[in-house]
Specification:
Blueprint (H helix, E strand, L loop, with lengths): L2 E5 L5 E6 L2 H4 L5 H15 L58 H17 L3 E4 L9 H11 L4 E5 L4 H7 L5 E5 L5 H6 L2 E5 H11 L1
Parallel strand pairs: 1-3, 3-6, 4-5, 4-6
Antiparallel strand pairs: 1-2
Helix pairs in contact: 2-3, 4-5
């Protein structure tokens, strides 16, 4: 069972915490982690790109010159792809890029991502994260105390003061345990979890 230090907002160690191996100590499945990242990025794509083929561009109904005797190559339309303002060959059309992973694959991918952070020493647990006011400097001070810069901070419940305090820090991102995903975990340099968030994740995914 992996054991990590729990820090307070001043960056001082206050206790040790045993992590559940069913969530934070699984065998890492790199293929599923890759699939989960690709799926999330694919599902974000709008797929609205469109260009007109030769059958869709306007004009070109008349044959530009007679078939033979002009010295030119034969042409049937001024809207063929080789003409200026002609249609596009194999033009892109709107499509849906999204695909699905089943629940077991999603869960294992998330647990693999969390396990990789634990093994790399990039998972940090903080006893609580609360501010009296919305202030970016307060959030930055906490990150400095924990000696992290590029961080994903996972909260158990939505705290407006914490979320808004982190909003203007380029390398910091906040999320909830209910919206935690593989892409954000892998993209973050460090994952900072509140103690309550650890309990909720273990309860849901163990």
């Amino acid at each position: 069972m992996a054991q990590v230090s729990v820090y307070n907002m001043e960056g001082k160690e206050v206790e040790k915490l045993d992590l559940n191996d069913a969530v934070f100590g699984v065998e890492i499945n790199e293929h599923l982690v890759h699939l989960a990242v690709v799926q999330q990025l694919a599902n974000l794509r709008q797929g609205t790109q469109k260009a007109k083929t030769r059958s869709e561009v306007s004009g070109g109904g008349k044959k530009p010159w007679r078939q033979k005797g002009t010295g030119h190559a034969r042409q049937g339309s001024t809207r063929a792809p080789q003409w200026t303002h002609g249609g596009i060959v194999f033009a892109p059309t709107p499509r849906d890029y999204s695909f699905k992973l089943n629940k077991k694959e999603k869960r294992l991918a998330l647990k693999s991502a969390l396990t990789s952070k634990v093994q790399d020493g990039k998972l940090i647990v903080i006893d609580e994260l609360k501010f009296d006011e919305i202030k970016t400097k307060n959030f930055q001070n906490v990150l400095n105390n924990l000696k992290v810069n590029k961080a994903l901070v996972v909260l158990n419940e939505n705290d407006e003061k914490v979320v808004l305090s982190a909003r203007n820090i380029p390398d910091a991102q906040t999320t909830l345990t209910s919206t935690l995903n593989v892409y954000d975990i892998m993209k973050a340099g460090n994952v900072v979890l509140t103690k309550d968030a650890v309990s909720t994740i273990e309860e849901v995914y163990a």
